[in-house]
Amino acid sequence: MTQMSVPWRPRGKAKFDGPAGMVAGGAKTVFAIFAPFVRAFPGAIMLSAVFGTIVAVWAHYLLFEVVDIALIGSTFNIPANTGLLGGPLTVEEARSALTQIGAPAAGFLCYLLYPVQYGLVRDLVAAGGILGFISVIPLYTIWWERKVAGRIQSRTGPMRVGGWHGWSQSMADGIKLICKEDLCPAGADKPLFKLAPYLAFVPAILAFFALPFGTYWVFRQLDVALVFILAMLGIEVLGVIIAGWASNNKWSVYGAMREACQMVSYEIPMGMALLIPIMCVGTLSLTTIGDTQSGGWTSWIVFRSPFTFAAALVYYIASLASCKRAPFDLPESESELVAGFHTEYSGFRWSLFFFAEYAAMFVVSGLLVILFFGAWYSPLPLLWADGLGESLPARAVKGVLFAGPIWFIAKCVFLLYVQIWLRWTLPRIRIDQVLYACIQVLLPLMMLILLGHTFYELLVPVGGVVWTLFNLILSTIGAVLMIGMLFVATYGCWNRVRLVGNLGRELLPGS
Amino acid sequence: MADTLLESQPDLMLDIDKSEQGDVRTEEMLVNMGPQHPATHGVLRVVLRTDGELVLEAVPHIGYLHRCAEKIGENLQPYQYIPYTDRMDYLAGMNNNQAFAIAIERLAGIEVPERAKYIRVIFAELNRIASHLVALGTYGLDMGAFTPFLYMFREREMILDLFESTCGARLTYSYINVGGVHDDFPDRFLDVLEEFLDYFEPKIEEYNQLLSYNHIFVKRTANVGVISPDDAVRWALTGPVLRGSGINWDLRKSTPYEIYDRFDFDIPIGLPGGSERIPRSVVVGDCWNRYFVRLVEMEQSCRIIRQAMKQIPEGKILANKLKNLKLPNDEVYVEIENPRGQLGFYIRGDGSAIPSRVKARGPSFCNISVLNHIGKGCLLADIPAIVGSIDIVMGECDR
Lengths: 511, 399
Known about the structure:
- The complex is a heterodimer of chains A (511) and B (399).
- With 511 residues, chain A is mostly helical.
- Chain A folds into 2 domains: 19-122, no CATH class; 181-459, no CATH class.
- In chain A, 66% of the residues lie in helices and 0% in strands.
- Chain A has 18 helices and no strands.
- Chain A has helices spanning 19-40, 42-72, 91-99, 104-113, 118-152, 169-179, 190-209, 225-246, 250-281, 286-291, 306-322, 334-337, 347-371, 392-401, 405-423, 431-459, 465-494, 496-499.
- In chain A, helix 5 crosses helix 6 (169-179).
- The radius of gyration of chain A is 26 Å and the shape is globular.
- With 399 residues, chain B is mainly α.
- Chain B has a single domain (69-360, 384-398), classed as Cytochrome-c3 Hydrogenase, chain B (Orthogonal Bundle).
- In chain B, helix 3 packs antiparallel against helix 4 (93-108), helix 5 (114-142) runs antiparallel to helix 12 (287-311) and helix 7 (189-212) packs antiparallel against helix 12 (287-311).
- The two termini of chain B are 35 Å apart.
């Protein structure tokens, strides 16, 4: 019998002594140093890490504000370094050099030598923060997804790594993935195969650069932030399609084609659903749209009219399809296409796809929160915070109670939880049913909603009787849904021993 | 060819008329589904000829798990062969043991004690429940629903605990032996069994809510892979696949072996949509009906076990004079109702202790043959649905 053809052959020994080995070694050392402490106080470390991050970001923000005020209203000259151009530069000189059209090179140099490097430093810190945030989101969303899935399925999920409920399981997985060999199938289109994960990952980061976490908490305040984010999510699809095509695997091609089919069907209702809040506010700037919802629960756009309510639902369904979550996970459906578009990927490149997917999950949830669910504002009206003043503690209280990134992240995390919940409850839809649902059901529905909303905005005066009535009814429905869910969750948690039955009790997680 | 096949499934709403594709050149693709594929339940290999997502042909290739099980049977004494039957349909070891044991007993004229017969029925029905739990759970998995799978495995685990308490094994039991069973129940076994049944029966309703009547699940399985009653008979299908096509044929009822004529139970069959407990879009013989027949069979198995628990007498569990068992110069063919269909053993003795011929008729082997017939003209995602609803175990298919 002739030797069977193997799609790929390992080329030499797997290299673990390069950067990957160093990363692994460093991680091991760090873990060895910190492991006893982590084991001793896991919960305290988790909480302090969360609050420490928030405080650190807050402090940065204050620092920049102070610097900003000092620079703009500066009556004194900040002494600068003695630069290559010779002689100390003042702020004014640097500014004028920056604005000189005839000397771009000098302007660039001046920018580098700028006394406090305000803009550059701010951008670097913010970019670093966003990258860190994007790295942390998938790690903890994956861990959390596994815990939630475990509870749904009467298991415990990861319990070992890190000591407290396996909180560092994802980090261990990540280190393992980095250490794995970087495989490329022999028949694959190598440049495209290696490019595809980055094409999926980079847009997901870029989308964060325009996503505001608060009124001033945004890397670049774009006037077309919404369009920019949608474009970035669109490019991510390209990475998936290229990955499927370049793998030289029939299942991957199926995954890629499904992704393409799915994209053309969900993008249209999704885009139309996003038009509704734009029509309400009249801008594409996410910061402005968010700031119009500062008046508490009833001012959220989702409760503005029956049409915005329906549009939010349509957007949520379409957003599930956009980040390939169940029941729309056809491009990577395990039982049909092995692993779909990432069948041939392994190690770090594979983990990039996961990072991109979870980052995209956060972005689409963030869009939903900003456009419909009150952005970074709490259900309490911001007006109530006016009496608190502008001192530092007052601002902290304001941030916790009324507005701030904490609220934004909390709402996003809740929507992530709903995505996880749906994934572990629902079966998968077939591809023709996805197309049918998106094109034959959601699209006409969305057109009707768009038309209805146009007439509603035209004919029903804002603040009139009809408007207020609908607003109140919808707000009440939303509140009842929310409280009902909390009640059911509490009831289930309280009676968790009784509900599973006599024999199942010993199989209960944590028993 | 594909056009005519699509007529049997008009609700696919796919237009593959070549003339309407204009200048776009399309090519058919051959895809190997298996032997390493998450949805082929072991080592089944299905060669698919596809046009995009449309499957034009689905040819099952078997034999990756062939272990000469029949030939081994011609070199061993019957009691030595019992462990090999476990490894055929490894999800229903008790039933396989039982089939072979009954065949040998009929051939050699061994009378099985009453208590052993009841123990056999209880364990065969428990194993039927366990096997169906795996079938239904993995079927949900094929549809992308992960959670029902773990719920069903949770309950299956309890059944395995019951088996373990009696025979010490959790998967390959070799418990039902020629002439009876090899161990009696431990203390309090029937109490624990009763407790399990009280726990288990309400769970079936939970599966219904979670999976059976789930809108997406019904959409995925209703009117998919329809086997007409004629086809079901022509392709020699048996078990839930046959009954899902609306044919009332169950060996426990039609030709009762052992003591099944003493129990009162129903044979669930596939029903048209709109009947009691059946969603409207379902047709007789589709994947949903095959799935649901298994679910109802679990309820009926519980009924049988409850009756057997009431009737079970005290007494011996193994027949006498089993040493130096000589098989007469005769032949026998016995079929019993396995969870997957009719498992038959043909055995010919030649006066010695070792049978001169052992032949098994496996339900999975016969049932999988219909795959190409019903898999034509469906979508790629329907192939796991159809394979899962036929519920094959490759160990028994390849033997």
